[in-house]
Amino acid sequence: xxxxxxxxxxxxxxxxxxxxxxxxxxxxxxxxxxxxxxxxxxxxxxxxxxxxxxxxxxxxxxxxxxxxxxxxxxxxxxxxxxxxxxxxxxxxxxxxxxxxxxxxxxxxxxxxxxxxxxxxxxxxxxxxxxxxxxxxxxxxxxxxxxxxxxxxxxxxxxxxxxxxxxxxxxxxxxxxxxxxxxxxxxxxxxxxxxxxxxxxxxxxxxxxxxxxxxxxxxxxxxxxxxxxxxxxxxxxxxxxxxxxxxxxxxxxxxxxxxxxxxxxxxxxxxxxxxxxxxxxxxxxxxxxxxxxxxxxxxxxxxxxxx
Length: 306
Ligand SMILES: [Zn+2]
What we know:
Blueprint: H1 13-20, E1 28-29, E2 40-41, H2 51-62, H3 72-75, E3 82-84, E4 92-94, E5 106-108, E6 116-118, H4 119-132, H5 137-184, H6 190-218, H7 222-233, H8 235-241, H9 244-254, E7 259-262, E8 267-268, H10 275-280, H11 284-288
Parallel strand pairs: 3-7
Antiparallel strand pairs: 1-2, 4-5, 5-6, 7-8
Helix pairs in contact: 4-8, 5-6, 5-7
Bound molecules: zinc ion.
Protein backbone atom coordinates (compact mmCIF):
# COMPACT_ATOMS: atom_id res chain seq x y z
CA UNK A 1 0.00 0.00 0.00
CA UNK A 2 3.05 2.26 -0.15
CA UNK A 3 3.13 2.92 3.61
CA UNK A 4 6.39 4.61 4.49
CA UNK A 5 8.38 4.92 7.70
CA UNK A 6 9.48 8.19 9.33
CA UNK A 7 12.56 8.40 7.10
CA UNK A 8 10.46 8.13 3.96
CA UNK A 9 11.49 4.60 3.00
CA UNK A 10 9.07 1.74 2.56
CA UNK A 11 8.70 -0.11 5.85
CA UNK A 12 10.53 -3.42 6.23
CA UNK A 13 8.81 -6.74 6.72
CA UNK A 14 10.12 -7.03 10.31
CA UNK A 15 8.57 -3.65 11.16
CA UNK A 16 5.24 -4.68 9.67
CA UNK A 17 5.39 -8.00 11.50
CA UNK A 18 6.09 -6.14 14.75
CA UNK A 19 3.06 -3.94 14.20
CA UNK A 20 0.80 -6.90 13.44
CA UNK A 21 1.86 -8.61 16.69
CA UNK A 22 0.83 -5.69 18.90
CA UNK A 23 -2.66 -5.94 20.34
CA UNK A 24 -2.60 -2.21 21.10
CA UNK A 25 -3.71 -1.63 17.51
CA UNK A 26 -6.93 -3.45 18.34
CA UNK A 27 -7.37 -1.32 21.46
CA UNK A 28 -6.09 -3.99 23.87
CA UNK A 29 -3.02 -4.22 26.09
CA UNK A 30 -1.13 -7.42 26.66
CA UNK A 31 1.43 -7.61 29.44
CA UNK A 32 3.92 -10.24 30.59
CA UNK A 33 1.96 -10.41 33.87
CA UNK A 34 -1.13 -11.62 32.03
CA UNK A 35 -1.69 -15.19 30.95
CA UNK A 36 -0.45 -16.08 27.50
CA UNK A 37 -2.74 -14.51 24.93
CA UNK A 38 -4.77 -12.64 27.54
CA UNK A 39 -5.50 -9.00 26.81
CA UNK A 40 -7.05 -6.03 28.61
CA UNK A 41 -9.18 -3.39 26.90
CA UNK A 42 -7.51 0.01 26.82
CA UNK A 43 -9.67 2.76 28.29
CA UNK A 44 -10.82 5.41 25.79
CA UNK A 45 -9.08 3.84 22.81
CA UNK A 46 -10.94 1.53 20.46
CA UNK A 47 -7.97 0.67 18.29
CA UNK A 48 -7.57 0.88 14.57
CA UNK A 49 -8.63 -2.69 13.77
CA UNK A 50 -11.16 -5.02 15.38
CA UNK A 51 -10.06 -7.64 17.91
CA UNK A 52 -11.42 -10.19 15.45
CA UNK A 53 -9.05 -9.00 12.72
CA UNK A 54 -6.18 -8.92 15.22
CA UNK A 55 -6.79 -12.54 16.26
CA UNK A 56 -7.08 -13.58 12.65
CA UNK A 57 -3.72 -11.95 11.90
CA UNK A 58 -2.11 -13.88 14.77
CA UNK A 59 -3.34 -17.14 13.24
CA UNK A 60 -1.99 -16.23 9.83
CA UNK A 61 1.40 -15.25 11.32
CA UNK A 62 1.58 -18.57 13.20
CA UNK A 63 0.73 -20.39 9.97
CA UNK A 64 -2.52 -21.75 11.38
CA UNK A 65 -4.99 -21.39 8.54
CA UNK A 66 -7.53 -23.95 9.73
CA UNK A 67 -10.08 -21.52 11.10
CA UNK A 68 -9.72 -19.02 8.31
CA UNK A 69 -12.54 -20.19 6.08
CA UNK A 70 -14.55 -17.05 5.38
CA UNK A 71 -17.79 -16.51 7.26
CA UNK A 72 -21.05 -16.17 5.35
CA UNK A 73 -20.87 -12.41 5.53
CA UNK A 74 -17.30 -12.41 4.26
CA UNK A 75 -18.36 -14.38 1.21
CA UNK A 76 -20.84 -11.65 0.30
CA UNK A 77 -19.24 -8.27 1.13
CA UNK A 78 -21.62 -6.42 -1.21
CA UNK A 79 -24.72 -7.80 0.46
CA UNK A 80 -25.82 -4.61 2.23
CA UNK A 81 -24.71 -2.31 -0.57
CA UNK A 82 -26.35 -3.67 -3.73
CA UNK A 83 -29.93 -2.75 -4.58
CA UNK A 84 -31.92 -4.29 -7.43
CA UNK A 85 -32.49 -1.52 -10.01
CA UNK A 86 -35.68 -3.21 -11.22
CA UNK A 87 -37.57 -3.19 -7.91
CA UNK A 88 -35.44 -1.22 -5.45
CA UNK A 89 -35.17 -4.12 -3.00
CA UNK A 90 -31.83 -5.09 -1.44
CA UNK A 91 -30.00 -7.78 -3.36
CA UNK A 92 -29.76 -11.02 -1.36
CA UNK A 93 -27.02 -13.61 -1.20
CA UNK A 94 -27.17 -17.38 -0.93
CA UNK A 95 -25.38 -20.51 -2.04
CA UNK A 96 -27.76 -22.91 -3.79
CA UNK A 97 -26.39 -26.33 -4.71
CA UNK A 98 -25.74 -26.98 -8.37
CA UNK A 99 -26.77 -30.14 -10.21
CA UNK A 100 -23.52 -31.79 -9.15
CA UNK A 101 -24.22 -30.96 -5.48
CA UNK A 102 -21.56 -28.25 -5.23
CA UNK A 103 -22.41 -24.96 -3.51
CA UNK A 104 -22.58 -21.98 -5.82
CA UNK A 105 -22.51 -18.67 -3.87
CA UNK A 106 -24.56 -16.02 -5.67
CA UNK A 107 -26.20 -12.62 -5.37
CA UNK A 108 -29.82 -12.43 -6.48
CA UNK A 109 -33.02 -10.44 -6.23
CA UNK A 110 -35.82 -12.31 -4.53
CA UNK A 111 -38.35 -11.05 -7.13
CA UNK A 112 -38.89 -13.57 -9.87
CA UNK A 113 -37.08 -12.87 -13.12
CA UNK A 114 -34.85 -10.10 -11.73
CA UNK A 115 -31.82 -12.31 -12.17
CA UNK A 116 -28.92 -13.78 -10.22
CA UNK A 117 -25.14 -13.62 -10.53
CA UNK A 118 -22.20 -15.64 -9.16
CA UNK A 119 -20.09 -13.89 -6.48
CA UNK A 120 -16.83 -14.00 -8.47
CA UNK A 121 -18.40 -12.31 -11.48
CA UNK A 122 -20.20 -9.76 -9.29
CA UNK A 123 -17.02 -8.82 -7.39
CA UNK A 124 -15.09 -8.48 -10.65
CA UNK A 125 -17.78 -6.17 -12.04
CA UNK A 126 -17.70 -4.12 -8.85
CA UNK A 127 -13.90 -3.74 -8.94
CA UNK A 128 -14.06 -2.77 -12.62
CA UNK A 129 -16.71 -0.21 -11.74
CA UNK A 130 -14.71 1.45 -8.95
CA UNK A 131 -11.67 1.51 -11.24
CA UNK A 132 -13.73 3.43 -13.74
CA UNK A 133 -14.68 6.10 -11.23
CA UNK A 134 -11.16 6.46 -9.80
CA UNK A 135 -9.84 10.01 -10.14
CA UNK A 136 -6.85 10.54 -12.44
CA UNK A 137 -3.37 11.44 -11.15
CA UNK A 138 -3.81 15.15 -11.84
CA UNK A 139 -7.00 15.38 -9.82
CA UNK A 140 -5.49 13.49 -6.90
CA UNK A 141 -2.44 15.77 -6.90
CA UNK A 142 -4.68 18.83 -6.82
CA UNK A 143 -6.87 17.35 -4.11
CA UNK A 144 -3.81 16.50 -1.98
CA UNK A 145 -2.49 20.03 -2.35
CA UNK A 146 -5.79 21.56 -1.24
CA UNK A 147 -6.07 19.25 1.76
CA UNK A 148 -2.45 19.90 2.76
CA UNK A 149 -2.84 23.68 2.58
CA UNK A 150 -6.04 23.56 4.59
CA UNK A 151 -4.37 21.33 7.17
CA UNK A 152 -1.27 23.55 7.32
CA UNK A 153 -3.46 26.58 8.07
CA UNK A 154 -5.31 24.65 10.74
CA UNK A 155 -2.03 23.36 12.19
CA UNK A 156 -0.70 26.93 12.39
CA UNK A 157 -3.77 27.98 14.42
CA UNK A 158 -3.42 24.92 16.63
CA UNK A 159 0.24 25.63 17.35
CA UNK A 160 -0.55 29.24 18.31
CA UNK A 161 -3.32 28.07 20.63
CA UNK A 162 -1.03 25.43 22.15
CA UNK A 163 1.74 27.88 23.01
CA UNK A 164 -0.85 30.23 24.53
CA UNK A 165 -2.06 27.39 26.80
CA UNK A 166 1.50 26.52 27.80
CA UNK A 167 2.30 30.12 28.74
CA UNK A 168 -0.86 30.23 30.86
CA UNK A 169 0.18 27.04 32.65
CA UNK A 170 3.64 28.49 33.38
CA UNK A 171 1.96 31.59 34.85
CA UNK A 172 -0.31 29.49 37.04
CA UNK A 173 2.64 27.41 38.24
CA UNK A 174 4.58 30.51 39.28
CA UNK A 175 1.50 31.81 41.15
CA UNK A 176 1.21 28.44 42.91
CA UNK A 177 4.87 28.69 43.88
CA UNK A 178 4.47 32.20 45.28
CA UNK A 179 1.48 31.01 47.32
CA UNK A 180 3.66 28.28 48.80
CA UNK A 181 6.41 30.82 49.52
CA UNK A 182 3.90 33.11 51.22
CA UNK A 183 2.71 30.22 53.38
CA UNK A 184 6.26 29.25 54.34
CA UNK A 185 7.11 32.84 55.17
CA UNK A 186 4.02 33.01 57.39
CA UNK A 187 2.34 35.77 55.33
CA UNK A 188 -0.80 33.63 54.83
CA UNK A 189 -2.20 30.59 56.62
CA UNK A 190 -3.05 27.13 55.27
CA UNK A 191 -6.74 28.04 54.73
CA UNK A 192 -5.99 31.21 52.80
CA UNK A 193 -3.49 29.37 50.64
CA UNK A 194 -6.03 26.64 49.82
CA UNK A 195 -8.68 29.18 48.86
CA UNK A 196 -6.23 30.84 46.49
CA UNK A 197 -4.70 27.73 44.97
CA UNK A 198 -7.88 25.60 44.55
CA UNK A 199 -9.23 27.90 41.86
CA UNK A 200 -5.84 27.96 40.15
CA UNK A 201 -5.66 24.16 40.15
CA UNK A 202 -9.08 23.90 38.49
CA UNK A 203 -7.98 26.32 35.78
CA UNK A 204 -4.73 24.36 35.37
CA UNK A 205 -6.60 21.07 34.87
CA UNK A 206 -8.83 22.68 32.28
CA UNK A 207 -5.77 23.86 30.40
CA UNK A 208 -4.23 20.38 30.56
CA UNK A 209 -7.39 18.95 28.99
CA UNK A 210 -7.36 21.58 26.28
CA UNK A 211 -3.71 20.81 25.47
CA UNK A 212 -4.52 17.11 25.06
CA UNK A 213 -7.27 17.99 22.57
CA UNK A 214 -5.05 20.36 20.62
CA UNK A 215 -2.25 17.81 20.46
CA UNK A 216 -4.66 15.38 18.84
CA UNK A 217 -5.27 17.89 16.04
CA UNK A 218 -1.53 18.47 15.79
CA UNK A 219 -0.97 14.79 15.09
CA UNK A 220 -2.94 14.98 11.82
CA UNK A 221 0.30 15.30 9.95
CA UNK A 222 1.23 15.32 6.33
CA UNK A 223 1.69 11.54 6.35
CA UNK A 224 -1.89 11.08 7.54
CA UNK A 225 -3.08 13.19 4.64
CA UNK A 226 -0.90 11.21 2.27
CA UNK A 227 -2.47 8.01 3.57
CA UNK A 228 -6.02 9.27 3.15
CA UNK A 229 -5.26 10.47 -0.37
CA UNK A 230 -3.82 7.07 -1.25
CA UNK A 231 -7.11 5.60 -0.17
CA UNK A 232 -8.92 7.83 -2.64
CA UNK A 233 -6.40 7.09 -5.38
CA UNK A 234 -6.56 3.31 -5.20
CA UNK A 235 -10.07 2.29 -4.20
CA UNK A 236 -10.13 -0.87 -6.29
CA UNK A 237 -6.83 -2.17 -4.92
CA UNK A 238 -7.83 -1.34 -1.36
CA UNK A 239 -11.20 -2.98 -1.74
CA UNK A 240 -9.53 -6.17 -2.95
CA UNK A 241 -7.05 -6.14 -0.05
CA UNK A 242 -9.47 -5.26 2.75
CA UNK A 243 -11.27 -7.31 5.35
CA UNK A 244 -15.06 -7.35 5.57
CA UNK A 245 -15.33 -4.46 8.02
CA UNK A 246 -13.17 -2.12 5.96
CA UNK A 247 -14.91 -3.14 2.75
CA UNK A 248 -18.30 -2.32 4.19
CA UNK A 249 -17.09 0.97 5.65
CA UNK A 250 -15.61 1.84 2.28
CA UNK A 251 -18.79 0.86 0.40
CA UNK A 252 -20.87 3.04 2.74
CA UNK A 253 -18.54 5.98 2.15
CA UNK A 254 -18.72 5.65 -1.61
CA UNK A 255 -22.37 4.66 -1.89
CA UNK A 256 -24.11 6.01 1.22
CA UNK A 257 -27.57 5.03 -0.03
CA UNK A 258 -26.59 1.76 -1.65
CA UNK A 259 -25.55 0.96 -5.20
CA UNK A 260 -28.21 0.06 -7.77
CA UNK A 261 -27.43 -2.91 -9.97
CA UNK A 262 -29.37 -4.46 -12.80
CA UNK A 263 -28.61 -8.12 -12.30
CA UNK A 264 -29.99 -9.20 -15.69
CA UNK A 265 -28.18 -6.52 -17.69
CA UNK A 266 -25.09 -6.55 -15.42
CA UNK A 267 -25.22 -2.74 -15.18
CA UNK A 268 -24.64 -0.36 -12.26
CA UNK A 269 -26.74 2.72 -11.54
CA UNK A 270 -24.92 5.97 -12.23
CA UNK A 271 -26.32 8.28 -9.54
CA UNK A 272 -25.33 6.43 -6.40
CA UNK A 273 -21.83 7.77 -5.83
CA UNK A 274 -21.51 9.96 -2.72
CA UNK A 275 -21.25 13.69 -3.56
CA UNK A 276 -18.00 13.93 -1.60
CA UNK A 277 -16.44 11.33 -3.82
CA UNK A 278 -17.90 12.41 -7.12
CA UNK A 279 -16.43 15.89 -6.69
CA UNK A 280 -12.92 14.51 -7.05
CA UNK A 281 -13.82 11.70 -9.43
CA UNK A 282 -13.74 12.10 -13.17
CA UNK A 283 -16.90 10.25 -13.89
CA UNK A 284 -17.13 9.28 -17.53
CA UNK A 285 -20.53 10.97 -17.82
CA UNK A 286 -19.00 14.37 -17.18
CA UNK A 287 -16.92 13.94 -20.30
CA UNK A 288 -19.97 14.04 -22.54
CA UNK A 289 -21.40 17.03 -20.71
CA UNK A 290 -20.39 19.79 -23.10
CA UNK A 291 -22.18 22.47 -21.08
CA UNK A 292 -19.72 22.21 -18.24
CA UNK A 293 -16.85 24.63 -18.60
CA UNK A 294 -14.95 23.02 -15.71
CA UNK A 295 -14.54 19.46 -16.84
CA UNK A 296 -13.89 20.31 -20.47
CA UNK A 297 -10.28 21.19 -19.67
CA UNK A 298 -9.45 18.03 -17.79
CA UNK A 299 -8.70 14.92 -19.79
CA UNK A 300 -10.17 11.64 -18.67
CA UNK A 301 -7.30 9.26 -18.32
CA UNK A 302 -7.85 5.55 -18.00
CA UNK A 303 -6.93 4.42 -14.49
CA UNK A 304 -3.78 2.32 -14.37
CA UNK A 305 -3.57 -0.63 -12.02
CA UNK A 306 -0.97 -3.21 -11.21
ZN1 LIG B 1 -35.61 -6.96 -8.01
